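Researcher: Please predict.
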Amino acid sequence: MSTWFDTARFGMFIHWGHSSQQGVELSWPMVGGNAALPDGDMTVAAYQSSAATFNPAQWDPAGLARTAKSLGMQYAVFTTKHHDGYAMFHTKTSDFGVEHSPYGRDIVREFVEAFRAEGLRVGLLRPQTLYPFPEHRISELADNVEGCLVVEMNAGQMLEDVRLAVGGQIPVSFFGRMGGMVPMPDEILDAIEDSYEKLIERKPV
């Protein structure tokens, strides 16, 4: 049984974010680049610094949608949040995203509305390092613990997923290392102790 995608053929992939201001690919520069896009080593701070100035005033989703349609495209896919953790949409689970940038508006929503208005199908891409994500199991565990610490070798790629899974039942803390640095046991223990102290401070006397 065929689907519309079997014959769609021609489409658009839109893949950009705050780091586009620096002329670098999303996420990869923080881990030394890759063979196709060897941007070299950038510190996490240098890469993420452009989040504070993200204001794509020339972003024109309606014009882009018209162009896509005029060229015969039938669909478009947009990267909503890449491994760098920057959300191109409004979310209540993180402050690291376009909602808190100088631009302020929900870019993903603008993309979806503009392309659908032209009769084009839309797709949304959000890479995950863990698939399928054990949402139900984490939700069950949240019933039996008072807090959760997410430890990652990145800037918090899975943090939002864990927060969504626990549904606000418990506080979720984060400890991460970038640039291929492995979180060491003593660092994780320190992060656990810090999270526990904050948890105690939140409890009513």
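Model: The longest strand covers residues 75-79.
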